[in-house]
């Protein structure tokens, strides 16, 4: 039986083009991306992007900061191929977000847009610890997730009919985890996002800086 990660990767790999067409426009979050870019205070910074998808966020970041040296990872090979096509100036590889602690390089910034819904609480907290280890002092970390009570995490059905387990997360434990791992919180935002099923979700964005 596939675990939740394998199931999600299989769906994203099969529907990479559909996902790209639906989510390439990230204008709802442009102000948060601008804030992220404006707080990276070095030139030609090295940026790790976790769960890059088809490179939709990457594309906007490079429009704002063409000097960014972006290394993007995703577990779905077809997503990585699309990211390469959409952003020929960046570097992308297939890699699991749960193994970033093995990376040898240090980074000036980490972008993690909506990876957390596919990680459980333990894995999300480990990602924060790994991010703290990978960031240089003064480095900036961007985290976004769907916010709700963690115990409401469950299998959800997409408009395609595919079912995927979605983890909700809470600021109540993400913020303390960031602070305990040496981060200062720079900005917290919540965005109301229509989920396509006639309902709305609350998207939480947290931007923090490594002390």
Task: Describe the structure using short key phrases.
single chain; 211 residues; alpha/beta; Rossmann fold; seven-stranded mixed β-sheet; 7 helices; 9 strands; globular
N-to-C terminal Cα separation, in Å?
42 Å
> In the CATH classification, which architecture applies?
3-Layer(aba) Sandwich
Q: Report the helical percentage.
A: 25-40%
Order of strands, widest sheet: 3-2-1-4-5-9-8
- Provide the number of structural domains: 1
SSE arrangement, N to C: HHHEHEHEEHEEEHEE
Mean pLDDT over the residues: 94
- Say how many strands there are: 9
CATH superfamily: Vaccinia Virus protein VP39
Gyration radius from CA atoms, angstroms: 16 Å
Low-confidence stretches: none
Task: Please count the helical segments.
Answer: 7
Please outline what is shown here.
By secondary structure, the chain is of the alpha/beta class.
Question: How would you characterize the overall build of this protein?
Answer:
The strands form 2 sheets. A 7-stranded mixed sheet has the order 3-2-1-4-5-9-8, sandwiched between helices. The protein has a two-stranded antiparallel ribbon with strand order 6-7. The chain has helices at residues 4-14, 16-23, 30-38, 56-64, 77-86, 121-134, 171-180; strands at 46-50, 69-74, 91-94, 107-113, 135-146, 154-157, 163-166, 183-194, 200-210. Helix 3 packs across helix 4. The mean pLDDT is 94. By secondary structure, the protein is of the alpha/beta class. The protein has a single domain (4-210), classed as Vaccinia Virus protein VP39 (Rossmann fold, 3-Layer(aba) Sandwich), CATH 3.40.50.
